[in-house]
Amino acid sequence: MTDSRQTSIDAKRYVLYPTCRVRSEGFGLLFYDMRGPRLLFANTGDLLRPDFFAGHVGLGSALDGAAPSRRRQAHSFLDSLVQKGFLREQPVC
User: Fold this and answer.
1) How many domains would you assign to the chain?
2) Average pLDDT for consecutive 10-residue bins of the chain (93 residues)?
């Protein structure tokens, strides 16, 4: 992966879709969508904290010091949550 592409990924911010919530559980994160209701149990361990999804920090800051494999895992996980309608990418201005 090129440095500019990695920088672009690290700058991404994510916010929960307005009808979705997230909380920490022993296995990782539990996402729930009140439109359904629909649940998603994510075995993420300590990869990301629920407050990350407020959109105040970019992915790179949230994963500061994480191994490249953990960064790839987080990016893939977040992309899947966007596709499933739990998250939206927030533009970085």
Assistant:
1) 1
2) 53 90 96 92 91 88 88 91 93 63
